[in-house]
Write a structure and sequence with these properties.
Elements: E1 15-21, E2 29-34, E3 38-42, H1 49-66, H2 71-76, E4 85-89, E5 94-97, H3 110-113, H4 116-127, E6 178-182, H5 209-217, H6 231-239, E7 243-247, E8 250-254, H7 257-266, H8 275-284, E9 285-289, H9 300-304, E10 306-307, E11 310-311, H10 312-316, H11 320-328, H12 336-351, H13 368-380, E12 388-392, H14 400-415, E13 419-423, H15 427-430, E14 435-440, E15 449-454, H16 456-461, H17 465-470, E16 485-492, E17 500-506, E18 509-513, H18 520-527, E19 531-532, E20 535-540, H19 553-556, H20 560-571, E21 594-598, E22 604-608, H21 631-636, H22 639-645, H23 654-665, H24 682-693, E23 700-704, H25 712-727, E24 731-735, H26 739-744, E25 747-752, E26 761-766, H27 768-774, H28 778-787
Helix pairs in contact: 4-12, 11-12, 22-23, 23-24, 27-28
The structure holds adenosine-5'-diphosphate (2 copies) and zinc ion (2 copies).
Amino acid sequence: MAAAPPVHPADGHDLLRVHGARENNLRDVSVELPKRRLTVFTGVSGSGKSSLVFGTIAAESQRLVDETYSAFLQGLMPGRARPDVDVLDGLTTAIVVDQERMGANARSTVGTATDAGAMLRILFSRLGQPHLGGPQAYSFNVASASGSGALKVGDGKAVHKSFTVTGGMCPRCEGLGRVDDLDLTALFDASLSLNEGAITVPGYSTEGWYARIWAGCGFFDPDKPVSEFTETELHDLLHREPTKVSVDGINLTYEGLVPKIRKSFLSKDVDALQPHVRAFVERAATFAPCPACDGTRLSEGARSSRVAGLSIADVCALQVTDVAAWVRGLEEPSVAPLLGALQGLLDSFVEVGLGYLTLDRATGTLSGGESQRTKMVRHLGSSLTDVTYVFDEPSSGLHPHDVERLTALLRRLRDKGNTVLVVEHKPEVVAVADHVVDLGPGAGSAGGTVCFEGTVEELRASSTLTGRHLADRTPLKAEVRTPTGVLPVRGATRHNLRDVDVDLPLGVLLVVTGVAGSGKSSLVHGSLSREVDGRPVVRVDQTPIKGSRRSNPATWTGLLEPVRKAFAKANGVKPALFSANSAGACPVCSGAGVVYVDLAVGGGVSTTCEACEGRRFDASVLEHRLGGKDISEVLEMPVAEAVGFFAAGESRVPAAHAVLARLDAVGLGYLRLGQPLTTLSGGERQRLRLATAMASPGGVLVLDEPTTGLHLADVEHLLGLLDRLVDDGTSVVVVEHHQAVVAHADRVVDMGPGAGHDGGRVVFEGTPAELVADATTLTGQHLAAYLA
Ligand code: ADP
Ligand code: ADP
Ligand code: ZN
Ligand code: ZN
């Protein structure tokens, strides 16, 4: 239990005070948080936790840090609006450790994103034989060491100038570790002219900027089919070196498609690209490990130098637990402090449950939870104190066994004199809080108030939803379903899988368990591909949803279509009028509701459109009503309210009602129909996809940690939903750590016994009751303890 005495805000004078916070749904929230303590924020999904912790406290701290930069630097950074709050005091610099994926730069690896890579380079420059020179002789990339995006505040990231020191970099692949071959025929349709849309590269549409550049640069005739281009024209289109041109009085740089694509798509991790860009890259480019460096990214010299028999590339290809053993074997007094620091860093990896990663793993391939824990590693060794660390569900992706170590780490950060704020749902994490703030009572407009503030003991005794659920235990089911079939998996070897043979039960709720890195995703994603026995496989994950800034739940789910028709019918006008991206759009913001200014450096700034006041439609469109509401008011409605609105009366729209009922069922009742998809959390995106998948039962549904972002009360709801899906004939396969979900399973496949090369086997397959009785697996032991 917590070493520090619980501090009640009333007795402390050292407080972080929030007064009158009103971001999003917050209703004049005031809280006093004890500094240098661990505070956990609880509450149902949509209750306002992120709005308070990230949107108010962390946002204001970041804004204040920005203000300390010179006017010149500030001019280059996106402006931040002050959060809607009356008073915030006692604030210290906030460091946000979230689940956002790390650096899309293909040169960014786990080694470069932490200090491990830099420390190894120093080590090799001191001890390597033959001796090559300073640390840069072992570097394939210097820029990414500071560009991984882990530190959101105070790293001046926005003005970071990328430079690469060529020292130890493989000259052939320039440190990427791979070479590419572009299929030029995938870039254009030769039968068309540029103005007809010959270019088939994402982002190069005929309405975009590039069309204007092609038309204005003077290198070719935009109305001539590409097949009739002269050799020079074709060369200019595909390969021309950067050349200054003036288009419509604006000075720009023109560059051929091939170098442009290399820079903007191929130098990034394929996994980190948007789905439509990824599809293009997969179609147009083939990658092979660089033949010169064998994929190690290092020059020949850098690969030849060895310490205790291993080159730096060899060390980076070991999993962290093995690197730690190798470092322990080095006895070299001259570098003892460095070895100590490196050992400490590697131990941090193990402590956060990442001992199975290799340092050469591209950061773009890490899951959200893995990314967050990698960022955490960067801070554990830091000597900063009196910082406010802000975590977003740090337990996600972690087995109960790993959660114990995680909570120890959070306490260690606190004991170094930092204020630790954590948004979490898992009772194991809530249990170690010094102070708990519970938001609610409901979601959206039914939330936004502080229902409880105090110690965990006081929370348990309270009558709040969270308090009541904290001691809840989902029991094993008296009767589990019998599989209707199996998917035989034979000789699976993806990643760490050890020639796995297993029959995955179908027609049931199957939960795949195991510690982080044991091989759950490798098994599930490797064996459940597009189709199983003629049933489509639908993967419901948390990755960003493709779409423009104008996309929202109403457009994405298609429910707006029938609503537009109903508006048109009721008013005797055309449906297109009610579309925010065509006829009826506000002419100033083109229906975005915001005016977005792209900056050359550091992203962009958006402000509410003054013409339509964010309503997105032309004033004349808003005169048309359905059931008393205009289209903008409809888009402002939360799902739960819209379900009723479209159920009956003049505004009855059965097709929209059906979609809304599913959105409500997955726990998104608080979401406004017009809320931009870009503002949804990973968990919300996953539930949105789940609602869509529910429309066509009968397939195989694969979910990756669907409890992310869900309160214990929401988890029960989710389980009911999964039950209904299985009863309707859907096979549900869930990768989960949440004990309630494991207990509720029909069948469990447990991977392990450990992570990385210590995992990769199926250690158990059977019912949850058998898993508990078996008691030889970590998962079984933890489930038994949970049920006790
Ligand atoms: P929690 O973190 O507890 O899940 P949030 O703070 O994310 O809750 O959300 C609280 C409410 O504010 C919800 O109704 C949500 O839909 C809304 N909301 C969150 N972010 C935005 C945003 N960027 N724009 C508009 N509404 C938002
Ligand atoms: P889990 O889902 O149980 O956390 P994973 O299937 O993600 O486990 O990982 C199992 C092993 O495979 C780990 O050693 C992990 O580092 C490795 N691995 C997973 N994804 C990749 C990848 N994209 N590239 C290389 N190794 C990977
Ligand atoms: Zn190379
Ligand atoms: Zn507008």
